[in-house]
């Protein structure tokens, strides 16, 4: 670390959901919305779907995060590419865990990390990194039970809105069961789909196609980013919604979810919790001149 303008960074991805990790082990850096936007910019910055500051949990500004410090010494301070703060990022947790291990900040195969969405358990399984994402819920369980759906999603160029189900994974998701007549690859996700009722804090939208037994394909439009090649919380939401529509409200087997950037595994855990597992890669290390952003 030369000075306050030259800063180390690492670039990583989980099934091509990519992140700039900014180590701030002494809690000296304020990665605000503007800095996150600049770092994530794919032309004038390093380029990423999200920015992750690696900081001691005890140094977090939010009291609710500092309260996790005893169990989870490292805090994943996450922002989307547009600078907005998100409660959780599933692939981010797995890439963050890979970084903590590589840097020797965590040594065991199992440890816990702090996120704005609470403490998350990490388990390293060879090449796979699994995150216990914690408890999940349908936003409107009564409507889910009655109709299977609670909202409508309309995409650019779409003839009619599609039925969808809202799932909370710490952050908000709206999962669409794609009609048989629609080709997943052909849907235009250039712009954010319109969701009704309008979610007050925005939402991530997942489009799902069933491929086989406990096997789906998914595309996602992420809140604060745009279409990405993977979204870990979205993959969990998609598997949970599809399992529910298939009559298995608490999934009893592993689900395989194919996204444009690869393949992830979703497993139900006791206590209405869900686990996400897949690869995570750290692909480059460098320094960035923060004053030039
Ligand atoms: N890519 C992430 C989700 C990141 C946050 C999301 N865009 C939001 O605003 O909720 C994942 O892997 O879960």
From TrEMBL:
Binding annotation for substrate: 17, 80, 90-91, 171, 204, 222-223, 232-233
The residue stretches assigned to a coiled coil in this entry are none
- Catalytic residues at 89, 89 (proton donor), 231 (proton acceptor)
Q: Which E.C. number(s) belong to this protein? A: 5.1.1.7
Give the protein's biological function.
Catalyzes the stereoinversion of LL-2,6-diaminopimelate (L,L-DAP) to meso-diaminopimelate (meso-DAP), a precursor of L-lysine and an essential component of the bacterial peptidoglycan.
> Where does this chain mainly localize?
cytoplasm
InterPro entries reported in the protein's UniProt record = DAP_epimerase_AS, DAP_epimerase_DapF
Matches recorded under HAMAP family: DAP_epimerase
Keywords attached to this Swiss-Prot or TrEMBL record, sorted alphabetically, are: Amino-acid biosynthesis, Cytoplasm, Isomerase, Lysine biosynthesis
Q: Where does this one sit in the cell?
A: Cytoplasm
UniProt source species = Knoellia aerolata DSM 18566
Biological process terms from the Gene Ontology for this record are:
lysine biosynthetic process via diaminopimelate
Entry's Pfam families?
Answer: DAP_epimerase
The reaction(s) catalysed by this protein are: (2S,6S)-2,6-diaminopimelate = meso-2,6-diaminopimelate
Spell out the protein name for this chain.
Diaminopimelate epimerase
Molecular functions (GO terms): diaminopimelate epimerase activity
Transmembrane feature ranges: none
Its family remark reads:
Belongs to the diaminopimelate epimerase family.
Q: Give the UniProt entry's GO cellular component terms.
A: cytosol
């Amino acid at each position: 670390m030369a000075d306050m303008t030259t800063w180390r960074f690492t670039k990583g991805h989980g099934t091509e959901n990519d992140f700039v990790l900014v180590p701030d082990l002494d809690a000296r850096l304020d990665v605000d919305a503007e800095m996150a936007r600049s770092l994530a910019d794919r032309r004038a910055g390093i380029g990423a779907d999200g920015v992750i500051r690696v900081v001691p949990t005890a140094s977090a500004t939010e009291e609710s995060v500092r309260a996790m410090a005893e169990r989870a010494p490292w805090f994943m301070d996450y922002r989307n590419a547009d600078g907005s703060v998100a409660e959780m990022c599933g692939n981010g947790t797995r890439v963050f865990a890979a970084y903590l291990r590589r840097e020797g900040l965590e040594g065991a195969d199992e440890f816990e990390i702090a996120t704005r969405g609470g403490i998350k358990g990490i388990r390293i399984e060879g090449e796979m990194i699994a995150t216990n994402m914690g408890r999940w819920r349908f936003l409107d369980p009564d409507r889910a039970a009655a109709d299977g759906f609670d909202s409508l999603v309309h995409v650019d160029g779409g003839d009619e809105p599609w039925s969808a189900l809202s799932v909370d994974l710490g952050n908000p998701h709206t999962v669409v069961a794609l009609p048989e007549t629609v080709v997943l690859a052909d849907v235009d996700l250039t712009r954010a789909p319109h969701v009704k009722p309008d979610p007050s804090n925005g939402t991530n939208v997942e489009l799902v196609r069933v491929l086989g037994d406990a096997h789906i394909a998914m595309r996602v439009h992420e809140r604060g980013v745009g279409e990405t090649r993977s979204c870990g919380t979205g993959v969990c939401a998609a598997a949970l919604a599809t399992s529910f529509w298939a009559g298995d409200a608490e999934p009893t087997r592993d689900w395989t979810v194919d996204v444009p950037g690869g393949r992830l595994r979703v497993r139900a855990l006791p206590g209405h919790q869900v686990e996400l597992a897949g690869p995570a890669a750290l692909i480059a290390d460098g320094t960035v001149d923060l004053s030039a952003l």
